[in-house]
Amino acid sequence: VRGLCPMKQILHQKGDNTLIFEARFESGNLQKVVKVNEFEYQLTLRTDLYTSRHTQWYYFQVSNTQAGMPYRFTIVNFSKRNSLYKRGLRPLLYSEADAKEHKVGWRRTGNEIKYYKNNAGQGGFQYFSLTWTFQFPHDRDTCYFAHCYPYTYSNLQEYLVAISKDPVKSKFCKIHVLCRSLAGNIVYVLTITNPPKSGKGTERKAVILTARVHPGETNSSWIMKGFLDYILGDSGKAQLLRDNFVFKVVPMLNPDGVIVGNHRCSLTGQDLNRKYRSNVKKYYPSIWYTRNMIKRVMGERDVFLYCDIHGHNRKQNVFMYGCERRQQAKAPYVHPRVFPLLLSKSCPDKFSFPDCHFRV
Question: Edge to edge, what strands does the sheet with 303-309 contain?
Answer without folding.
Answer: 173-180, 186-192, 245-250, 205-211, 303-309
